[in-house]
Amino acid sequence: MAVARVSVAVAGRVGDMTVTYAPAMPQAGTELRTLIERELPELVEIRHDLHRHPELGYQEARTSGVVRRELERLGIEFRAGIARTGVLAHLPATGGRTDGAAIALRADMDALPIEETTGCTYASVTPGVMHACGHDGHTTILLGAARVLSKVDRPRPVTLVFQPAEEGGAGGEAMCEQGALRGERGGGLGPPVGAIYGLHGWPQMRLGHIGTRAGPLLAATDDFIVAIEGTQCHAAFPHLGTDAVLASAHVVTALQSIASRSVSPLDSVVVTVGRIAGGTANNVIPRRVELVGTVRTLRDSTRRLARERFFEVVGATASAFRCRASIDWQEGYPVTHNDPGATAQVLEVARGTVGPGRAVELAEGFMGGEDFSYYGQHVPACFFLLGLTPEHADPASAPQLHQPTFDFNDEAIATGVEMMCRLAGA
Hints:
Blueprint: E1 10-14, E2 17-21, H1 30-52, H2 61-74, E3 77-82, E4 86-91, E5 102-108, H3 135-149, E6 158-163, H4 171-177, E7 193-206, E8 210-212, E9 215-218, E10 220-229, E11 233-234, H5 244-255, H6 257-262, E12 269-278, E13 284-285, E14 288-297, H7 300-320, E15 324-330, E16 336-338, H8 340-354, E17 359-361, E18 381-389, H9 413-423
Parallel strand pairs: 5-6, 5-7, 7-18, 8-17
Antiparallel strand pairs: 1-2, 3-4, 4-6, 8-18, 9-16, 10-14, 10-15, 11-13, 12-14
């Protein structure tokens, strides 16, 4: 079926900038877009305020306060203090409908310990902390969805999940443990959740595009601290000691054999040593060297294999140099695995929101991690990517996630809000 596209731009004035909502979209859903357009200027102001005041995981008191304020203003039932600073909200179905599980929509709220260098007028005022992963945009989008959904017909109940501590704190797991998906009787609100959707702003994708895939989208994230211990000695007399530096260098090299020789070339695994620490002087071979890093995998079976081989390689290589190795293995987030049915729903909604040519079924996943993965262990879930990079810019050279120059693109807010509203049935 042919789909018409709109070509009229709607602009809103926000401070000293103009935000334009003019994606190449099908005509359907004009009423919904009109509501979004009306909210957009205030949503951009909220996003800038959140960006200006970033908070680390489980410290999102002010951010949670902004969320609570908005929900109170809208008259939406909510519960605060879940997983410390998380907020759960509930919108009942309209028209007297009472049957059916809820659709959940999720946003993360925390920032990162990074010094911002964007030069934005709304840059972080908190030294060493910034929204370098776009969670200010995610929270704003979900608040926008709350505004719009409160004004339209809702065929199913909607649960809004504002979670803390995605950046390493497993806030998603904590929200699940405290009943966010279980409904009123299980510690949450409303009926139990039947499916959940979440998004992430993606600078590697162009503005106005949506991407996702069934199966593994983002990787499991396991971390490690390895201590290699030898015998300290004078640098001029290495034969009188056992060299932990030399052993560590070989361990770093040998670990790459996990990807090249233990895992199929058609599978994915990353073993990265991100920090090496050891030694005090140029003429001393130290007793101890520490290696810190991460292992990323997209399959549970590969995750198990990588862990097994990691312990074997580290232990055997250290032993070959007459050193000892101890490993602190820190199991992180599981694979973000998208349910096929929920993914089909996201792609269908995306085709109606941004157009068939901009709704992208991704051929492969990415090695970043996400604690949205925990929700998918309880209910059908789909996580999707929201393009951020303008058409005139190169996604490869645009500021990327976790970089001090990254800033969420305000022009993606409207598309994100529409996707969330449509997934809720609006």
